[in-house]
Amino acid sequence: MAVTGILGKKIGMTQVFDERGEVHPITVLQAGPCVITQLKTLAKDGYDSAQIGLVEFVKGSKVNKAQAGHFAKNNVPPVKLLKEVPVEVLATTGEVVQDAEDGNGAGNGKMKAGDKVLVDIFSDDKYVDVSGTSKGRGFAGVIRRHGFGGGPKSHGHMFQVQGSIGASSFPSRVFPGQRMPGHMGAASVTVRNLRIRGIDLDENLLMVEGAVPGPRDGYVLISKSKAPPRERRGFGGSGTVDPLKASKKASGGKAPAKGGAKKK
């Protein structure tokens, strides 16, 4: 597909074992299906992107007149959630990569409004970035919000306070950025470079290693990783080589001779 992201839901967490017997925490995501509701081009809009909607259709009475006209113009049914994502552009010609699926699920070589966006856009990727809204914690103190250690725990002291927040005579104010109690959570969070551990093309499921922001059934945006990590030596299935053992093996099982012959 030409688009670089897809809308989905967080189903929950589980764990899997790899071929070495090591356990990995896994988050299962319902990645789509989505539908393209609008296409923006460099010539008309100044940049290339696609507006996608999660396939959770709603009644026409649930959207306002502006949204109803937007959906009718692009000949797509009203959906509950919309998001604009970038599209892949060829570096040589500057043309948009066109490999969308039509309504029958067959590739037609063109991308247009009404085409499906499925989880198979990540078939050739190893890492993804997931954006969501973190769980709301309400008004929280510094112990929970910032991880403060609290005050002395002996008799007569208050434990859940942050202590001094500034001097009195000078500067006679609280510096900006002082960590204090306040609203916690319910913020937009992006977790980058989550390793893909499995893809279910039939059910549109994506399994990533690690935690994803938000509660179960929370909406998330899954995007191709912008800066995937480099594969290190001994990482990602590649084995390491001991130089001493390799040298001994190359010499036919004999230890390499030391420099210089012995004098008689």
UniProtKB/TrEMBL annotation:
InterPro entries for the chain: Ribosomal_uL3, Ribosomal_uL3_bac/org-type, Ribosomal_uL3_CS, Transl_B-barrel_sf
Region ranges (Disordered): 222-264
Range of residues in the leader sequence: none
Stored Pfam families: Ribosomal_L3
UniProt entry keywords in alphabetical sequence: Ribonucleoprotein, Ribosomal protein, RNA-binding, rRNA-binding
PROSITE patterns on file: RIBOSOMAL_L3 (PS00474)
Coiled-coil annotated residue ranges, if any: none
One Gene Ontology term, aspect cellular component: cytosolic large ribosomal subunit
Listed GO MF terms: rRNA binding; structural constituent of ribosome
GO biological process: translation
Annotated Low complexity bias: 249-264
Stated role: One of the primary rRNA binding proteins, it binds directly near the 3'-end of the 23S rRNA, where it nucleates assembly of the 50S subunit.
Assembly and interaction partners: Part of the 50S ribosomal subunit. Forms a cluster with proteins L14 and L19.
NCBIfam families according to UniProt: L3_bact
Family: Belongs to the universal ribosomal protein uL3 family.
Entry protein name: Large ribosomal subunit protein uL3
